[in-house]
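S.,

Sequence below, as promised.
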Amino acid sequence: MNLLQLWRDRFDVVFPRQCVHCGGAVEQGNYRHLCPACAKRLLIVAEPHCTTCGHPYFGELEENRLCEHCETLEPQFGQGKTAVLLQGSGRALIHALKYHGRLYVLEDVTTIMRQAPGYVDYLRGAVLVPVPLHPMKLGKRKYNQSRLLADCCVAAARGQAEVQELLCRVVNTASQTHYDREARRENLKNAFALAPGATINPAQHYILVDDVFTTGSTLNSCATVLRRGGALSLDVVTFGHG
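The prediction came back faster than expected:
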């Protein structure tokens, strides 16, 4: 047992961990912040799934099937992949990170990324580009969850990927939460730009990183900027879908 694990075990005795979903005790299992019961309810995405947004196909798979989640999207990127569906435990992890500042859940996020079939292979060898926050929002939140998730991707891939912050957000857009698909697109027009000094290597494989794939509007807006900057091989990845 290494010193870090020994310290954790002793700390957990004094301050027992609570599940971020149900609030129950976390005494064992593969996750530090999900109890075994809630961990079993994680909806980790496996094949078959939509190659554009990553949402799984359930039931009988039809040839050339259209995905209802992105069928009206005109993607400016190649493929998309996600790790979990944002229901139950998966949603609780993202909400704990994004809205409550519980950065300790990133350890479990990395574990889930490693468990999602094909997720790590998808990341290897890529330059990961996190979706940026506007400076005003970043100043208020103190961290960009997409950057933190990009770091989780690197950890999951055992360092076989790197992060470059090539984009900046130049318009402080309103929250997308209550917008429909068309309103999201309109809200994000000209919201992103290449970061000062950013350079794009046309021979490099880039992967945009965001927390959630909902309609794809944010990722598409960012992809448009990278395409214009010269990115030829460009895909996207999110932690969750929903």
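Strands lie at 80-85, 127-130, 162-163, 167-169, 192-194, 205-213, 233-241.

Coffee later?
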